[in-house]
Design goal:
The protein is mainly beta. The chain is built from six helices and 38 strands.
């Protein structure tokens, strides 16, 4: 085995190229998946691009990116660890707004048409412009990494993705000049200061920094801000699906360095967005909470914690319905089935996968064996029968209802003969195209898509030596073009670029295995301006397919509670 000597992750990454051929591949009818015509592809050959990294500035290797797409598929928000959130119109690729925020992002789901109309009428009577979109983020960089003094903020955006009633910005440097000019004569005459001393000091930069921070606070004075709280991680969904409630975490620091009094332990807050008030406070966990979420029918709320348990609550009353036993290690994440009847979670330090009945907590099935690494990502297929998840170099599709341990429908494993573990892992999985396509996001930035119908696969590879930062999730697609033969993937990549790729459909003639293909190849188009988009992907309901056009467009409660085993 070849040993590569390197002193840092980025040095290792510079030498790494994602392997085109896996150790284990996706299959159909016992035959391994084949690349469709034109694949693998490499960054640089995309069909459209937005270079958002240029707007963020700074060292790309130190960048931390988060992103979110609005429920109607029109807006994309990207945050970086530099107090900047960029809001783009996906169809026109136009940068619509820059916000002073950071950290994980989420758009509030669109309200129902009836409720939206009612709210609009009430606001019209009051002379208030109602926001078309609401985005949640953190405010300060320094509050990342689990600090308890984190602040969350709700940004009200109009139909174009711009801030409502944005005020004119001040020039902090110019005001610092005025302030120093006003006080300098007194400092020189009465306090033995000199102009040269002041010029060489940090007075101006300190004034400018203070003014900049206070100006930011002033611009946010009308925003809803939550103090000393955070939202869940690992694909947590902070909003209820009907858009009425928000979940956030309070006192959510770990107790691994010492247990605290019960009133100081982590808990989940359920906030009523319409009333602007706390609805429920969900207590019981004894260590940091990693994941929270509403069931798709908004009847239940679940939370997963480093205390090794998962807890299930009634969303309407806030009462605890059931809880699991301590799994014997940190627990990381969970996911409700699309039909709201079951929930899967990773326990025992993320190495054990279990499925429970949402209604009574009964253990339905347990994935056979113990994983070698943490599992921190789940994605249910829309059929509510299959779950995709990943850990280390592996991605699995699990059918949990096929017996007490379920069955493995698919197992993909990255080839790692040179022991590139820091680079070669599957970081995220998600279903696209109404559950037909399974998409994988790799730790080196490469993306892989498998078509479960044709057994074709597409690889979008990071070029050798390309510098990248870190990103939590960047798989958004599909977006449909002007005709049904045109579908486009939207990927937020770790090098600070948003890429659009036309979906490749045709398999090589020798790879069809005698199966009739039900799709045709997308024709090559010289001019990308002919493309328009409608979202069919992650986080965007397939029944809402707004056509977007434009130049270059596509794109606790006590002893009576039982413990589920």
């Amino acid at each position: 085995m070849e040993v590569v000597c390197a002193t840092s992750y980025h040095e290792i990454l510079a030498e790494y190229s994602f392997p085109i051929e896996p150790l284990r591949d996706f299959e159909l009818d016992g035959k391994p998946a084949q690349y469709v015509v034109g694949h693998p592809k490499v960054w640089g050959g995309e069909d459209g691009i937005i270079e958002f990294g240029e707007e963020v500035k700074g060292d790309p290797e130190r960048a931390h990116y988060h992103s979110a797409v609005s429920s109607d598929g029109k807006l994309l928000a990207i945050s970086a660890n530099r107090e900047r959130i960029l809001v783009y119109d996906i169809g026109t690729k136009e940068l619509r707004q820059v916000l002073e925020g950071t950290g994980p992002l989420a758009f509030r789901p669109s309200l129902s048409e009836e409720k939206g109309t009612a709210n609009a009428s009430q606001n019209e009577k009051k002379g208030i412009q109602a926001p078309e979109y609401i985005l949640i983020s953190s405010i300060s960089d320094a509050t990342l990494r689990g600090r308890e003094d984190n602040k969350l903020i709700l940004w009200d955006l109009d139909q174009c993705g711009r801030v409502l009633d944005e005020e004119e910005r001040i020039d902090p440097s110019a005001f610092a000049d005025k302030a120093i000019d006003a006080i300098l004569p007194d400092l020189v005459a009465n306090h033995e200061w000199s102009r040269d001393f002041v010029a060489a000091s940090t007075l101006h930069s300190s004034f400018t920094k203070a003014l900049r921070e206070v100006a930011s606070d002033h611009r946010r004075r009308d925003n809803t801000v939550f103090e000393n709280v955070s939202i869940g991680t690992f694909n947590s969904e902070p909003f209820s699906h009907d858009g009425k409630f928000l979940l956030y975490l309070s006192q959510n620091s770990t107790t691994q360095n010492g247990m605290r009094e019960p009133q100081s332990l982590p808990h989940v807050i359920v906030y009523d967005l319409d009333l602007g008030a706390e609805a429920h406070r969900l207590s019981g966990h004894t260590d940091a909470i990693m994941w929270t979420g509403f069931s798709p029918d908004d009847q239940h709320i679940a939370s997963v914690s480093w205390d090794g348990t998962m807890r299930m609550y009634s969303a309407s009353t806030g009462e605890l319905a059931w809880t699991t036993v301590d799994s014997g290690g940190q627990s990381w994440c969970a996911a409700f089935s699309p039909d709201s009847t079951h929930i899967v979670w990773s326990s025992a330090s993320g190495s054990v996968i279990q499925l429970h009945n949402v209604g009574n907590g009964k253990l339905v099935s347990k994935f056979a064996g113990k994983l070698k690494s943490w599992c921190r990502c789940f994605s249910w297929n829309p059929d509510s029968e299959q779950i995709a998840f990943c850990e280390g170099e592996n991605a699995f599709v699990w059918r949990p209802f096929d017996g007490s341990t379920g069955t493995v429908a698919q197992h993909y494993q990255i080839e790692d003969e040179n022991d590139w573990r820091l680079c070669s892992s599957v970081q995220q999985v998600t279903w696209m195209g109404a559950g037909r396509l399974l998409c994988l996001q790799m730790s080196d930035g490469s993306k892989l898509v498998h078509d479960t119908h044709t057994n074709g696969k597409e690889l979008f590879q990071r070029p050798h030596g390309t510098k990248i930062g870190w990103q939590d999730f960047g798989l958004y697609g599909l977006f449909r073009g002007a005709n049904d033969d045109e579908e486009v993937y939207l990927f937020v990549d770790e090098d600070g670029k948003l890429r659009f790729w036309r979906r490749g459909l045709a398999l090589p003639p020798s790879s069809t295995h005698g199966r009739e293909q039900d799709v045709v190849a997308v024709p090559q188009i010289e001019d990308s301006s002919a493309l328009a988009t409608e979202s069919l992907g992650h986080g965007v309901p397939t029944e809402n397919k707004p056509l977007v056009a434009g130049r270059d467009a596509w794109a606790d409660s006590g002893a009576a509670l039982w413990t589920a085993e």
